[in-house]
Amino acid sequence: MVSFIARRILVSILILIAASFIMYVLAANSGDPLQDLRNSTSPNRQALIDARVNAQHLDVIPPLRWGIWLAGAAKCVIPFANQCDLGTTFTNQPVTVLVPQAVGSTLQLVTLALILAVVLGIALGMITALRQYSGFDYSVTFISFFLFSLPSFLMAVLLKVFIALGFNNFLADPVIGPVALIVIGVIVGAVMQLIIGGPWRRRLYLFLGIGAATALILWYMSATNWFLKPSLGPVVIIVLCAAIAYLVTLIIAGVRNRRAMLTAGIAALLAVISYFSLQWLFDISSIGTIVFLGLATIAIGIIVGWLVGGYDRGMNMRIGALVAFLSAGVVLVDRFMQSWNQYVNDVSGRPIATVGAQTPGLTGDVWIQGLDTFTHLMLPTISLLLITFAGYTRYSRSGMLEVLNQDYVRTARAKGLPERTVIVRHAFRNMLIPLATLVATDVGALLGGAVITETVFAISGMGHLFISGLYRTDVNPVMGYFVVIAITAIVFNFLADLAYAALDPRVRTH
Amino acid sequence: MSTIQGNQLEPNIPDGVDAAGVEGDGAGESQGRLILKRFLANKLAVASVILYLIILVFAISAIGLGPIPGWWHYSYKDLPTLLNGGTPTLSLVPKWLGGAGIHLGQHPFGQDTIGKDYFALTMRGIQNSVLVMLVLGLSATVIGVVVGAVAGYFRGWVDAVLMRITDVFIVIPVLVIGAVVGKSSGGFGALGLALLLGAVSWMVIARLVRSEFLSLREREFVEAARVAGASDARIIFRHILPNAVGVIIVASTLLIAAAILLETALSYLGFGIRPPDSSLGLLISQNQSALSTRPWLFWWPGAFIVTLALLVNFVGDGLRDAFDPRQRRFSVRRTKEAPAAEPAKQSA
What is the interface pTM, i.e. ipTM, of the complex? Predict the structure, then answer.
């Protein structure tokens, strides 16, 4: 195993060096690096040109210049020497300073998008597999094909124009008319009855019930000016926490499992208590406090599960952690909502931003700053999410269908396990194995591939570093971008192989 | 994003139903005819092929190709005067419904900000995008098949060297290398761009073909051909390649679907096709700021990009179903009826 890993690392390094050579020569030959200076009318034009030629070694031909670059980059490998030299841009900023900033803002953008895409994609794929060849299955298949065929810049521009402008205009006068209420109710009812399924009579009741409830809730929100001053309030929080506890138990353990129900109930109750007792702490919180509270919540959930215990302690601990985490999320969302009105006033009534990653010059506590990040990253995240999640839906659907056809699933059914156990315990876990590989490769792709989304939304992340460098034929930032992307791709491919071997015992025998 | 990176829409795993249900496949028919029959039975895929061809013929005949003039009275280079703010004159609502009657008018898709006829620009964009799609797909397939076949057939150090080269190209994201290549090939036009992009997107096909060849070369019919004295080239092209053609066709169709997204993305970023020539991505990039005031400048190219990509994806899906009968669609209820004993689960 050790020799395998060592060989793999050695080969990867050689591949990286070769790829960097190709990239360097292509990028250096893609245009004239002195273009902007040649066209300039500045009196010291010649001096500027000479300075850039000297600083960037432009008098050396590209393949040899790559050697200079590689010699500087090789110093990065020396540990703790801090001699890393990836060159400078035309404006004399060292690339080693620019890259970490860019990685930071790109990670901020893609992390949530990837997590949501994986969770939603797998959930939707599983539902469509369980309702194969239903109307819902066909609709989701068509939508995922559509999203697959939609160029990312088109999606981004559309979101920018319709969601951002539309929502901001809506907030100026937040009243939903009766026609819109009926249309929304009909759509939500129709989608929900397709997901839940069943005989037509049950579907009709579901359609009418859910549709009417949606319209009624929206009417109430509109009538009470909820969109201007949103908050959940104690009643909704209690209802939501109870619903989370019930659903998590239903999915993981089944509602007949009293101990699981007890764990979930206690965890949800603790979250509700924290809502009433911790508001003073929230008001003076920093990001550190929130992260600490989040970790503490998960720990408490695990402890609750362990204390309730029973014959399946591990499962109870998982339920406790999940319920506590989700319920705490509800409490957190409520706290953010309390700051919403103030935030909307701060940005003069147009909260959803279309460019940049933050409002310049905005001051406020952690909640205001959090909302600011949220409103700026919401649209780019949605646009990345929609594109990525179409693929996951397709993969998890066909993976689930394949797994459901396996002998061990038939065995599980034959020995009389309830359908829930068969799907959650036997099918779902095995379906996840090939997806682990996919997620690993997608991390690299997303990190490097957010180029277009970043361009449309003017976020200065990795994509911006690459594109702006390439426009000016400024090779060093382009190479800085490339190094990060290539190393991520190699590392995550390697992790994917290892994960596959760890998750699937059949692979190890080969 | 990953749409551009990975061109496989779905993993190559069966869709949950066994081959057992493949009914009515006549005995004496050749493999090719069976596949064709299965493909033709997929109405969506056949309709997609037809619609794709219609769009292509329409775009080529409208403004002509190269020196040959088309039936439309403007070319994408003409600069007529801006009429009526450039609003589209296309009308599809008949007079008896209260509309303006069905007619094309002077500028059915409107005019862009300087007055160029948008119908001609869009048709030129379709021509270029389709050209890039097909040339990129074809050249990448040829390179990929050759590299994969040689590596898989000869194995040993040839395989090792070729696969390491493939790895080198895989490390660089397609969009990135495409942007670099596209920037330097600005002067070559659509055809040059397509060929260069094809030269950097063959890796997926090479890997697929190699793994196909690795398993096929051990089969008895290859042994038989070798015993009969066939040359390596003959074995590769006449004996093994026809058996791997399904994988290749499906992969290159999906590559073509990804190609239009790559080309439009590059043109959008300014690294693809340059003005005065036109491309669907370029049109969107030039006019995105006008979306609220002149939405037609955005909608026409956008609609055609999505339509073309969607059609190719449907064709690719249909081809996969045709080549791999395990994924065939047939009434799943028949297979489900047996275990449908659980009363809790109603009809699927």
Answer: 0.79
